[in-house]
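Same chain as my last thread, 193 residues:
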Amino acid sequence: QDRHFLKPKAHCWFLLCCSGMIDSVERIVLTELIITLCEDRMTSVAYLADLAQLWCSIRISDDGMSLHVYGFDEKLGDLCLQLATCLATLADWNELEKRLEVAKECLRRRYRNKFLKPSRQSKYMRLRILLNRGVNSTSERIKALECCDLKRLQSHCRSLFGDKSDRVGFMEVFCMGNMLVQDSVRLARNFAE
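reply #2:
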């Protein structure tokens, strides 16, 4: 419980792990496109959620896709459900073709501006030397981004979230804060469905 405003506060993390999400440069770029498009599609919902003191974030992690939903309101479950619906129906979104070029341009700029800070360049070099795998160069990602089209994106979405998805992945859920165990379990089940 928040001691200052006396309102309940909860954090929920969802980690979606799937082998087809980050196993190649092309799939990493497609997953980043999905995240960018989902953020674009959820803009109006995120604004209204912000007014209700709810927040969400999506990012790619080493294991898959990480979603973080948190806030003070009891409508936290509704925001999670809207986020899950957005991901599940992204391949059939009416404006997907129009917004794809915008998302590709955003990613292209992000890739090109990745090493503007020297600390990012040194971190990249250390990871490249230490891991010698899984760390792709900016030019590789830009090249993979140029090859992405609507059909590839839709098939990637359907393979991850559609009815005919591979289902070889799993989801980890961590909820903390002022939330009952039953609410946490119900929230995780609703998100998974």
